[in-house]
Write a structure and sequence with these properties.
The complex is a heterodimer of chains A (269) and B (546). Chain A has 269 residues and is α+β, with helices and mostly antiparallel strands. Helices cover 34% and strands 13% of the residues of chain A. A 3-stranded mixed beta sheet of chain A has the order 8-1-9. In chain A, a hairpin with a 2-residue loop joins strand 2 (44-48) and strand 3 (51-55). Chain A is elongated and about 95 Å long. Chain B has helices at 3-34, 36-39, 50-62, 64-74, 82-106, 115-118, 125-152, 155-163, 165-185, 203-229, 236-263, 275-295, 298-301, 304-334, 342-365, 397-422, 424-429, 446-454, 478-481, 512-516, 537-540; strands at 462-464, 474-476. Chain B starts with a helix and ends in a 6-residue tail after the last helix. With 546 residues, chain B is mainly α. The longest helix of chain B has 32 residues, at 3-34. In chain B, helix 5 packs antiparallel against helix 15 (342-365) and helix 9 packs across helix 10 (203-229). Classes of the chains: A alpha+beta (269), B mainly alpha (546). Chains A and B meet through helix 1, strand 2, strand 3, helix 2 and helix 3 of A and helix 1, helix 2, helix 4, helix 5 and helix 7 of B.
Chain lengths: 269, 546
């Protein structure tokens, strides 16, 4: 079960009811900006290139924001949407750096700020078996909610049926390793502000590749350091043998000498 | 003879510190009383600024001297370096404390700084960094504790800590290496955002090596400064040794950096006429290559001002690198400029001053600096001009010129975010990648509306129940109210009626008065925008059945 939203830019008349419905169901203030994402505006219609483009969280299949969150405040829910637990968040804002789509917003003017973004009406609709407020309000069928796999087939069918009306790309099928929100467009996505993110690459994997090497690196490093400590200690002992201070037999029994201040201390005592 | 001038200096410094203290307290009150937005210039486009870029990245970085010298003394047993191990450890310890303070300023919910201890996401680099920061601060405290115990004359704990020193040092090295490299790993997940001159999957390695260079340089710098401040002789031989280590580290760093740029095909960006390229060459040339060349000269290593200058360059270059990664390297993608607010700057300066003051106090009251004798200058390196050699003359003219140069570069750097965000390259690379900015409402794309309207599906008619004295129920049909060529949901939603529950006003309930007079239906049905609600009852009301 992986719910998704298909946004067909060919069908959007730009009425903006999706953004207004979002504001309503999430109890966001009426004077929230309608021309950008913000802490009080989780989706909006961008007017660009003659098109009306609904912007929102892409709900990645393997989200960077959730992977970087040190306390797990952001996570991919079992139902699919990428959701946020404000009681865990300590406000490091790494999610905002990590998101390849630049989606998460922050309540900068609050003393108890939260990260804000679309959660696909997770508690209010998805968990109750419903569909998000935006898709349920769309009068033109530009937004369609459903099973991601089905939406992909639907999108590909639309491209096949009217190849002259669409560019041959479903944005979100491969982007950032796949997203739950999918777009169809009559013009190339790069020309209307869709980020040229890595395809078929899940962003979390980039850091995990490094983190996975860490345990081995630390073990080897620790052993190496201990080995150097032992060897350098041995060398000091052998020097004592060479200078005739101790015999070889004594040297074999000795443990590596302590270093630094402790060495001075030994001399003193 | 020095005393009067020292006092004079102190009063000036006291005034400066006093002003700083007041400004810092004010900024602190604003930050914690009103939130990040009131105190900083951070924004959704620039979630991380000076406090992360300088206070955290640089603060942790310059502490690297602590683990390098501890390992040199206790693992590699080059025990003559024990003489500078203590100042290096003190720097590292204070650095870590300052970083924790800075993090408290920067976190949106500082009271939750302990959350990573309880709520775990082991796949997060930030989680790892939080743990390393905490654990290494504890290890540093333990490594540093012998000084305190010596001063207090507590022999038992002193003995225990000294016995544990080697495992402690090894643990500290592992934690510190993880911490330093993880700060670079932070940015590995942002390949699209960070400029290709700085982004690299190798960032963890580059961060580690540059931190080692900066940590060593910081220790050199402190030795120079403290020899002046406390009227001591410089531990020349040791500082020269550190200088040689900086040469090697910088060489490794430069080779790796060049390799990485060529391998990723990003070297071309260094030869474009962009602010990023200027910053890149400043950082690489003045901050890495120049000090490396300088320190490889024996004459420079035997000159106090040479050592001071080269180590300062290295630290400055390091600072520019970290700020480039955290701030300027992001400007192209966000397309927005960021310049720290005066409160961000004040808090940063305040924290640095606090660290310096603590260092000074510790150096005064604890056995931080051992007594070292400066060996005489080799004959071949005697000053050419015939002037007597003065180890105290650190701020010579070339050194000052170099410092001003670095300051100028810093100014270019901070001003650069403005021009970077406005440059055409940024537009090409990044502005297109933003979902945030508003674009002007153009004419509609020809295919857009037509196709959308083919599928126009309006909600079903809604029947408002009739009240007692009503001529009949009102049925509202979207089809009669929506122009298919110009769909305007926001004429009624959500100002008058809710989107998500049909037939429900935004506030209160539907009644006859509201529907007929100036509100709800009547806000359009006023006789001007549409026919008046009083024109003809049966235009809206339907015959009651029966």
């Amino acid at each position: 079960m992986q719910p998704g939203i298909l946004v067909d830019l060919n069908r959007c008349a730009g009425c903006g009811s999706c953004a207004l419905a979002c504001r309503e169901i999430n109890e966001l203030p009426a004077d929230a900006p309608d021309d950008r994402l913000s802490a009080t505006s989780w989706t909006f219609i961008e007017r660009r290139g003659g098109l009306s483009i609904k912007r929102q969280c892409m709900h990645c299949l393997n989200p960077a924001c959730a992977s970087v969150c040190p306390v797990g405040a952001l996570r991919k829910s079992d139902e699919g949407p990428v959701v946020y637990n404000e009681r865990l968040c300590m406000g490091c804002r790494y999610c905002m750096i990590a998101c390849p789509f630049g989606v998460p917003r922050y309540e900068w003017d609050s003393t108890e700020p939260r990260v804000r973004k679309c959660i696909m009406c997770w508690e209010k609709r998805i968990q109750k078996g419903g569909e998000p407020a935006c898709t349920s309000t769309c009068p033109t069928g530009a937004l369609r909610f459903g099973e991601r796999e089905e939406l992909i087939s639907e999108a590909q069918r639309r491209i096949r049926d009217k190849p002259e009306a669409y560019v041959n790309q479903v944005y979100g099928l491969h982007e950032a390793g796949g997203t739950s929100v999918l777009y169809l467009s009559p013009v190339p996505f790069a020309t209307i502000g869709f980020p040229n993110v890595h395809k078929d690459t899940e962003y979390p994997g980039m850091t995990w590749a490094i983190l996975d090497k860490l345990p081995a690196a630390l073990t080897v490093g620790g052993a190496l350091l201990a080995g150097v400590w032992w060897l350098t200690g041995r060398r000091e002992i052998m020097e004592q043998v060479r200078s005739g201070e101790i015999t070889m037999d004594e040297a074999m029994r000795r443990r590596p000498p302590v270093t630094g201040d402790a060495a001075d201390e030994e001399v003193e005592s | 003879m020095r005393l009067p001038s020292l006092l004079g200096r102190l009063t000036v410094w006291r005034a400066v510190l006093g002003a700083l203290l007041i400004a810092g307290l004010y900024a602190t009150v604003i930050r914690f009383g009103q939130g990040l937005g009131a105190a900083t210039n951070l924004s959704d486009d620039y979630p991380w600024g000076l406090w992360i870029g300088f206070d955290v990245l640089v603060g942790v970085g310059v502490a690297a001297g602590g683990f390098v010298i501890a390992a040199t003394v206790h693992v590699f047993r080059m025990e003559r370096y024990a003489a500078i191990a203590r100042p290096a450890l003190l720097t590292a310890f204070l650095g870590y404390l300052m970083v924790i303070l800075a993090v408290l300023f920067d976190l949106g919910r500082p009271m939750r700084i302990w959350h990573p201890l309880v709520f775990w996401n082991t796949r997060s680099v930030m989680f790892l960094i939080g743990w390393c920061e905490m654990l290494y601060a504890i290890v540093l405290a333990a490594e540093f504790s012998p000084l305190l115990f010596e001063k207090l004359g507590w022999h038992k704990p002193l003995k225990v800590v000294r016995r544990m020193m080697t495992p402690l040092v090894i643990l500290g090295v592992l934690l510190s290496v993880t911490h330093q490299s993880s700060l670079g790993s932070l940015y590995v997940i942002a390949p699209d955002k960070l400029h290709p001159l700085w982004y690299s999957p190798m960032l963890p390695v580059l961060f580690l090596i540059s931190a080692v260079a900066a940590g060593l340089a910081m220790t050199m710098f402190e030795s120079c400064m403290s020899s002046r401040a406390f009227g001591r002789r410089l531990e020349g031989g040791l500082v020269r040794g550190l200088g040689r280590a900086v040469v090697v580290t910088q060489a490794v760093y430069l080779v790796l950096r060049a390799n990485d740029l060529i391998y990723r095909g990003a070297l071309g960006y260094a030869f474009e006429a962009t602010p990023e390229a200027v910053l890149f060459w400043g950082e690489i040339g003045l901050g890495s290559a120049l000090p490396m060349v300088l320190l490889s000269s024996r004459r420079v290593r035997y000159s106090n001002s040479g050592l001071f200058f080269a180590s300062t360059l290295t630290v400055m270059g390091f600072i520019v690198h970290r700020l480039n990664v955290a701030v300027t390297g992001m400007a192209g993608w966000t397309g927005v400029s960021y310049f720290p607010s005066w409160m961000e700057v004040t808090v940063t300066v305040f924290l640095v001053a606090l660290g310096v003051a603590c260092f000074g106090l510790a150096a005064r009251y604890l056995p931080v600096f051992p007594k070292a004798e400066e060996e005489p200058l080799p004959e071949s390196l005697a000053p050419r001009s015939g002037k007597p050699y003065d180890p105290d003359r650190i701020l010579t003219r070339p050194a000052l010129l170099g410092l001003w140069g670095m300051l100028a570069l810093g100014a270019v750097g901070v001003l650069a975010t403005d021009s970077i965000s406005a440059s055409p390259q940024a537009e090409e690379r990044g502005a297109a990648a933003r979902a945030g900015a508003a674009a002007p409402a153009d004419a509609r794309h020809p295919s857009a509306v037509a196709q959308g309207l083919e599928d126009l599906t309006l909600p079903p008619p809604f029947r408002f129940p009739a009240s007692e004295d009503s001529p009949g129920p009102v049925v509202f049909d979207h089809a009669d109210h929506v122009d298919p060529m110009d769909v305007r949901c926001d004429a009624c939603h959500p100002r008058l009626f809710r989107f998500t529950t049909p037939g429900t006003p935004a506030e209160g309930v539907v009644n006859s008065d509201r529907a007929h007079d100036g509100d709800l239906c009547a806000s359009c049905h006023d006789g001007e925008k549409a026919f008046s609600a009083y024109d003809d009852c049966m235009l809206c009301h339907q015959e009651s059945e029966g």
